Amino acid sequence: MVKKPKKGILVILLIVVGFATAILGTQASEETKFTISSHDDLVRGEEVTFTISGQSVEEFSSLILNIEYDTSVLEFANDYSFHLDSGPMTGLRNDVEGLLNLYVVSGSDAYISMNDGALIDITFKVKEDAKAGSHVISLTAPDESYVKIHGTEQEVLLISTESGTYFVNVPLDSVDIAKKNI
Fold first, then answer.
1. How many other CB atoms are found less than 10 A from the CB of residue 66?
2. What would the pLDDT profile of 111-122 be if each residue is shown by its tens digit?
3. In 3D, which of 73, 37, 69, 43 has the Cα closest to residue 55?
4. CA dist list (Å): 167 to 70, 171, 182
5. Taking a C-beta distance cutoff of 8 angstroms, is the pair 136, 162 a contact?
6. Mind listing the pLDDT tens digit for each residue in 53-68?
7. Is residue 70 within 8 Å of residue 98, measured between CB atoms?
8. Would you tell me how many other CB atoms lie within 10 Å of the CB of residue 163?
9. Is the Cβ–Cβ distance between 179 and 105 less than 8 Å?
């Protein structure tokens, strides 16, 4: 009779440990993610600033992100501002129309502190003849992009990205229902 309670307790203990391990494993693996903001109610001819932010990012040594946008709707205003302390080499290249390459590289052994939040603000102008409606501004990380975790130089943390959307309004003075002109 003594053996049955011990087996039952052992089974219950194994089940509890299994659940605890699954729960702790899920909580410990937060995903490092970079997102670009979305906007509603954009007006032709006005400027709009998109912000790229990081989530579950503490420190990193280098990062490369690409921003793709529709050149028939947006025009890069050549205006951007990083939200990082001075020190890292930063840049935003616009070698190909409709594609911005963002890079951040620290010094030799230094790490860049970010602490979840805004990385950069990028300003565009909505073109006067921009097509009304919903559009996507794409944020991607090329294969060579990585984030190194402080203290583990050999460890590379994969990152994910999330694109944004924006909506261009139709100016009321350009709507002519009789001519079906929108």
1. 18
2. 777 766 899 999
3. 37
4. 12, 12, 15
5. no
6. 988 876 777 888 999 9
7. yes
8. 14
9. no
